[in-house]
Design a protein that fits this description.
single chain, about 525 residues, alpha+beta, Cytochrome p450, five-stranded mixed beta sheet, 12 strands, globular, binds protoporphyrin IX containing FE, binds 2-acetamido-2-deoxy-beta-D-glucopyranose, metal-binding, heme, Cyt_P450
């Protein structure tokens, strides 16, 4: 707080004082003739700020691929209005471009930048040649204003992706065992007590965020650290804080970011999270090296495998600092927790609204195992179809995947993507296209039941996990995790949509993020199993 108010003082109040003093104007006749008192009066100042703001919003200084701009309601609509409308109607604007300019690329205007939505035909080219100059990490860093959210670290710490693809994915069955163990613990402590057979209203997303934070911490840090309340609360809150900073800063021109950033409470929390995480990580590092020094490689106190251990042992020298390790952990958390908890919540809300499908899914689970603490997600085909349908209707990011051009790129047909351009693909318009998915608005959980492509394999019509070599490295874990968590909740609890929630909006779109309505509630009760 001290820092903030004194910086405010230095950056804003003092220069204003200086300006206000008559001296500044005395030698300039024109200015002297303007009464400085009026010149600096609040309405005039306000007008100047307002006009500068609109000018900033109307300018299009970011590089884009040549193409039409989507979403203008008429020839007369000013650009600043189009940008403002994108905040709450991004999908509407992307749909406009998708249907109007079918098979060619178009531009959408976000408040902070223009984004080129590439035609789907370019997907093949992206996969075949790899096109590494179109970089997913740099697109993310740009989107979350890495400099203000500590995510610039992702530029130097590419092991946050390697930890997943070299440690987590090859050992996924082992990690699934830890996960199921952590779930048993979480169900005991995080789900409210149900006396007998009563119904309770449950904030489903908060519950799932907590459950999935525990699982993520277990995989990252292992026992016993993952049970630390501070860790869980960091894991739960970090992504929200990053969204907070991002969504506020995008409303302001970059020149004001350093100032505005100081005033955003979410940002204070990001830095607190980093400090707390460092303390705990230091403890783990000390124990890790003590265990190594004493030749005790069995690590009795902790899990044999964790992502953090892998990073400690495999990071390059410049990635081994405490700050690097903590930033990397938090980058994985940001990618993993919010996405999975949102998708699981959507899935359960859909099923609660369509209870006739629950029986079928329960039968599939019961047929696959009689040990609910040891589910094999690869046997749950109906559940997988249901997950795929949920991702089709409600992907966490509606214009995934996104890439940033690290240099000028010429595609095979001659189209040029200029250096610095942010490009995206029309994930949502395409998955809601009735020529691809009949009756697209309808939740048809088993729509893809007989399609042999797994949900983790991106296709032209299913881009929620991204595309090509840079697609989400955590998708194999995510799919298994969501299936197992949903399966256990469905086997142990009855669920129905709370009456007040049934008519509610299911989600809000804020720019390209799709967020479940935070007021969404499910009614749950403990199941009574017939003997
Ligand atoms: C339903 C859950 C999830 C969804 C929908 C999702 C979606 C995505 C998408 C669309 C991308 C960008 C891919 C591209 O540009 O082609 C991505 C990247 C990524 N995801 Fe996921 N993801 C999910 C869960 C997870 C989980 C559980 C983890 C971690 C274990 C994870 C880790 C990552 C990482 C590390 C990246 C790379 C970011 C970068 O390149 O900078 N994700 N994810
Ligand atoms: C778009 O491209 C696809 C495949 O190249 C083609 O089948 C389709 O007819 C095209 N649509 C339009 C509107 O040009
Ligand atoms: C994207 O950029 C990051 C950070 O500079 C780098 O580590 C990564 O290898 C790049 N990705 C590709 C596919 O080139
Ligand atoms: C999938 O195949 C089974 C068995 O042939 C059939 O009963 C079911 O209706 C099919 N599902 C869909 C969505 O087509």
């Amino acid at each position: 707080m001290n820092i903030t108010s004194s910086s405010f003082d230095m950056l804003v109040l003092r220069p204003l004082e200086a300006l206000k003093s008559q001296q500044a104007f005395e030698n300039v006749p024109i200015l002297r003739s303007l009464e400085s008192r009026y010149f600096l009066s609040a309405p005039f100042f306000g007008l100047v700020v307002f006009i500068s703001y609109l000018t900033w919003l109307s300018s299009a200084s970011t590089p884009v691929v040549k193409g039409p701009v989507a979403g203008y309601r008429s020839f007369w609509e000013p650009t600043f209005l189009l940008r403002l409308r994108f905040v709450f109607n991004a999908v509407g604007i992307m749909n406009d471009g998708y249907y109007k300019f079918k098979n060619s690329s178009y531009v959408v205007r976000r408040m902070d930048t223009d984004v080129t939505v590439l035609a789907l035909k370019y997907l093949d080219e992206l996969r075949k040649s790899g096109l590494d100059e179109l970089n997913a990490t740099h697109a993310n860093i740009h989107n979350v204003l890495g400099g203000y959210t500590n995510l610039n670290e992702m530029k130097f710490n590419d092991h946050f992706i390697k930890a997943i693809s070299h440690c987590l994915n090859p050992n996924i069955n082992e990690f699934m065992k830890y996960m199921q163990d952590e779930l048993s613990f979480s169900f005991k402590v995080d789900i409210p007590d149900f006396e007998g057979h009563e119904w309770k209203s449950i904030d489903i997303h908060s519950l799932l965020k907590r459950i999935i934070s525990r699982v993520a911490s277990r995989i990252m840090l292992g026992l016993p650290y993952c049970r630390d309340e501070t860790i869980i609360s960091i894991t739960e809150s970090h992504t929200i804080c990053i969204f907070g900073v991002t969504l506020i800063l995008r409303r302001f021109p970059p020149i004001l970011h350093p100032l505005v950033a100081l005033l955003i409470p979410h940002r204070w929390r990001i830095w607190r999270n980093i400090r707390e995480m460092k303390k705990i990580t230091q403890t783990i590092l000390d124990e890790h090296s003590a265990a190594k020094a004493s030749g005790d490689t069995s690590h009795k106190s902790t899990e044999p495998k964790t992502l953090l251990k892998w990073m400690i042992d495999n990071a390059k020298p410049h990635q081994k600092s405490l700050h690097s390790l903590v930033s990397t952990q938090l980058a994985v958390t940001v990618a993993a927790v919010y996405t999975s908890s949102q998708v699981t919540s959507h899935l359960l809300v859909f099923l609660a609204q369509n209870p006739r499908y629950i029986a079928e899914i329960r039968k599939e689970i019961a047929d696959s195992t009689n040990d609910i603490e040891n589910i094999d997600p690869s046997k749950l085909h109906k559940m997988e179809a249901c997950l795929s349908e949920t991702l089709r209707l409600n992907p966490p990011q509606t214009n995934a995947p996104q890439r940033r051009a690290m240099q000028d790129i010429t595609l095979k047909d001659g189209v040029v993507i200029p250096k610095g351009a942010l490009v995206a693909f029309p994930c949502t318009p395409c998955s809601m296209d009735s020529s691809i998915y009949p009756d697209p608005q309808q939740f048809i959980p088993f729509r893809k039941e007989n399609i042999s492509v797994p949900v983790t394999t991106p296709t032209r019509n299913q881009l929620a996990f991204g595309w090509g070599s840079q697609a989400c490295p955590g998708r194999f874990l995510a799919a298994k995790e969501i299936k197992v968590v949903a399966a256990r909740l469905l086997m142990e609890y009855d669920m129905e949509i709370a009456p007040e929630a049934d008519k509610m909006r299911r989600y809000y779109d804020i720019e390209d993020l799709r967020v479940l309505n935070p007021s969404m509630r499910l009614r749950m009760r403990r199941r009574v199993l017939e003997a």
